[in-house]
Amino acid sequence: MSFDFSGQTVLVTGASRGIGFAVAKAFAAAGARVCVLAEDAGIVQAARLLAAETGSEVWAQRCDITDRHEVNSALQGIERLDVLVNNAGVELPTPVEDGHDDVDDAFERIMDVNVLGTWRMTRAALPKMTPGGRILITSSIWGRTAVPGFAAYVASKHALIGLARTLSRELGPRSIRVNAVCPGWVRTEASLRSLAVMAREQAVSEDELAESIAADQSLGGLMEPDDVAGLYLYLASEAATNVTGQAIPIDRGEVMA
């Protein structure tokens, strides 16, 4: 199935790499004007690469979404917004029995970026969204289950599903649809870092753990970022006109609930 987003403006946060980059590329390839946003300087080069590869208009905004004023400033140049993809996030271990202060710092950072950052960005974007606009939130398969040692990340991804469901109720009268995407194991910098942490905790090699994860899936293997981008396009398209308030997994059959 092909999608056409010509004439539409899409904002993707956390788009300098990984899933965000892949989603931005998919929207740009489908004809959208795309604003890519991230805190790191790599977002400028990401925008150049996307524009060159897709031939669409792509521009970058550097923004720390933990700062409400930066968020508001970053959106000033956008007059109309059709699709908001809240993808920016932090994934770090936060073992509850680790007594070091940096665990508490990591917990607060994760919640501030993943949950409050999504809230800030959505609040700032809503006045610019057209009737029939779409908001997509990157949760995680860990937002539907849990793993030890990642309390903050798991809690944040559960919270994002609740946020998507509530916003779908509030914004339904404006015909704005809100859905959460729940990726499973995708080969990104963050997920591979978590894989390494989990492997150390379980005293196995990273390859052994990856094989164990794949064995629990209906379809084996880790996904690549491009593998999940199509679901975002579908949920933002007219084909999903009646889909809102949902948390949709894309995990090769890892979690079935």
Explain this structure to me?
The protein is an alpha/beta fold. It has two domains: 9-185 and 224-250, NAD(P)-binding Rossmann-like Domain (Rossmann fold, 3-Layer(aba) Sandwich); 187-222. Helix content is 44%, strand content 17%. The protein has eight helices and seven strands. Strands 3-2-1-4-5-6-7 form a seven-stranded parallel beta sheet, with helices on both faces. Strand 4 (81-86), helix 4 and strand 5 (129-138) form a beta-alpha-beta unit. The radius of gyration is 18 Å and the shape is globular. 45% of the residues are buried. Residues 8-185 form the Ketoreductase domain. Belongs to the short-chain dehydrogenases/reductases (SDR) family. Keywords: Oxidoreductase. One of its GO terms (biological process) is fatty acid biosynthetic process.
Summarize the structure.
By secondary structure, the chain is an alpha/beta fold. It has helices at residues 18-29, 42-54, 68-74, 101-125, 151-171, 189-202, 206-215, 225-236, and strands at 9-13, 33-38, 58-62, 81-86, 129-138, 177-183, 247-250. Helix 5 links the parallel strand 5 and strand 6 (177-183).
Which radius of gyration do the C-alpha atoms yield?
18 Å
Describe the main β-sheet briefly. Answer: 7 strands, parallel
What structural class do you assign from the helix and strand content? alpha/beta
**CATH architecture classification name of the largest domain:** 3-Layer(aba) Sandwich
Helix content: 40-55%
Q: What is the rounded distance between the termini?
A: 26 Å
**Low-pLDDT runs:** none
Proportion in β-strands: 15-25%
Query: CATH fold name of the largest domain, please?
Result: Rossmann fold
Q: What is the β-strand count? A: 7
Basic shape: globular
- Order the strands across the largest sheet as they lie in space: 3-2-1-4-5-6-7
Order of helices and strands: EHEHEHEHEHEHHHE
Total discrete domains: 2
Mean pLDDT: 96
Q: So what's the oligomer here?
A: single chain
Text of the CATH class of the largest domain: Alpha Beta
